[in-house]
Design a protein that fits this description.
Length: 114
């Protein structure tokens, strides 16, 4: 799992805004905000379509078509993205982890798109 600790920890207002694109989870002595994959992908201008079976039908990044495999990499990174409230750090993995974290930080620090 990759960890990214922002230069300045998120304040309570930023955490509330982060919760607006995710959900707070508290169990087993851990406190985290898990980000909704669809919302965080939208912050990166990623659109993924699916077949009825659940397989990826298409993927667009900034209205440009990319391979379904690349769409799978975006999705894999988004599904595991969370902010650990105790460690004050984002946790996740995958090729697009850093892109997703940067988009989430831009959103909580003033972006209105979600």
């Amino acid at each position: 799992m990759t960890t990214y600790r922002p230069e300045m920890p998120l304040d309570s207002q930023s955490i509330e805004k982060l919760c607006s694109i995710g959900r707070k989870w508290e169990r087993y002595g851990k406190r985290r905000v898990y980000l909704d994959s669809d919302k965080v992908l939208a912050l990166c201008s990623v659109e993924i379509g699916y077949y009825g079976t659940g397989n990826i039908r298409y993927c667009r990044v900034s209205d440009e078509g990319v391979s379904n495999a690349e769409g799978g990499r975006w999705l894999a990174s988004a599904i595991k993205l969370c902010y650990d409230l105790d460690e004050e750090a984002f946790l996740g993995e995958g090729k697009h982890f850093e892109d997703l974290v940067n988009a989430a930080l831009a959103y909580v620090h003033g972006g209105d798109q979600a």
